Amino acid sequence: MKVLVTGFDPFGGEKINPAFEAVKLLPDTIAGAQIIKLEIPTVFTRSADVVEKAIKEHQPDIVIDVGQAGGRSCMTVEKVAINLAEARIPDNDGEQPLDEPLRADGETAYFATVPVKAMVENMREHGIPAHISYTAGTYVCNAVMYNVLYLLDKKYPGVRGGFIHVPFESGQVVDKANGTPFMSLEMIAKGIEYSIEAAVKNEADVKENMGETH
């Protein structure tokens, strides 16, 4: 089995992106699966093309994209991506879409096809704070999650896909406001590793209610 794991390059004035920095720390094999690590651009247009090229080259069984969600306090496994691009700030190529669909022929939304609850559960069992998230935003993280799930649905049946948002790592919050949440890079990497382990071992998700009340 092969798992393609992507992480974004730095954006929004940050010097690093904990997404790819953590991906680089992953072992080369998790639960018997070969791990393929790929840095992708924080760009609406090019990010999906870079991932699709890697899918064609490596033919993975699972694709997991990882992105930074500064301000979140724990690991969050995304449940759904929406067919909408709207950017508060320009991406790394200067693109700043406003209320645009990502794919004219795409569904309104796509659900992750990896076992998100099992991934959250496995992180928690190893002492890592984690939750399901029901919004990946409208920036490039949502865009790459949506585009990858669109591609898997249309062109690569049988390949499963999902997305994990990670908090700031400790070095990023040195000059930020008191109380800004963060995690160590090592804990972020372990969270991703346990998520991948659960995705490899569980084709079907666990039956546990993790819904929100707001």
UniProtKB/TrEMBL annotation:
Residues annotated as the enzyme's active site: E78, C141, H165
Protein EC: 3.4.19.3
SUPFAM superfamilies documented for this protein: Pyrrolidone carboxyl peptidase (pyroglutamate aminopeptidase)
PROSITE patterns with a match to the protein in the record: PYRASE_CYS (PS01334)
InterPro entries, per database record: Peptidase_C15, Peptidase_C15-like, Peptidase_C15-like_sf, PGP-I_bact-type, PGPEP1_Cys_AS
GO terms for MF: pyroglutamyl-peptidase activity
Class in the EC hierarchy, top level: hydrolase
Swiss-Prot/TrEMBL GO biological process terms: proteolysis
GO CC, one annotated term: cytosol
Reactions it catalyzes: Release of an N-terminal pyroglutamyl group from a polypeptide, the second amino acid generally not being Pro
Keyword presence, Hydrolase: yes
Function, in words: Removes 5-oxoproline from various penultimate amino acid residues except L-proline.
UniProt similarity note: Belongs to the peptidase C15 family.
Protein name (record): Pyrrolidone-carboxylate peptidase
